[in-house]
Request: fold
Amino acid sequence: MADISERETGNPEHALTPEVPGSVEVDVSSLTPGTSLVVNWNGKPVVVRNRTEKERKNSEALKLTDLKDPIARNANLPADAPATDANRTTPGKEAWIVMVQVCTHLGCIPFAQEGDLGSWLCPCHGSQYDTAGRIRKGPAPENMAVPVFQFISDTKISIG
Reply:
């Protein structure tokens, strides 16, 4: 699975970390705006992305009525929370996206910075997600899941 992280970041130094049962701490100090890394959490690839100002503004501008799945799918919020950009991030750290990088159609691994949207594209059946991981095109029925996570410092995130 190391190819996933290299594909995600273009940097072989961002190899997937070993799986840690329950939770994993991630050092994000090297992530500048527009960069990502992928970690293995409970057998799943989880992408951590520091979004650019443009990515955030484009995502914030979308209307809920334009989304295929109006539910945030954020384990940190109530199950019926709407899929606003703010509900896909965390307060005070809106540039950061943490989500399970698995297509909700058939479980494939979407590629980053691909497709018409320049965000996540599933190569198997063409599902496309925006920079907040919300499904925009294709057969996937739901947004990519946001796991339980929190910033434990300015440069570390705990997932799980």
Q: What stands out?
A: Residues 1-20 have pLDDT under 50 and may be disordered. The radius of gyration is 14 Å. Residues 71 and 80 are 6 Å apart (CA to CA). Strands lie at 24-27, 35-41, 44-50, 96-100, 111-114, 119-121, 128-129, 135-137, 149-151, 156-159.
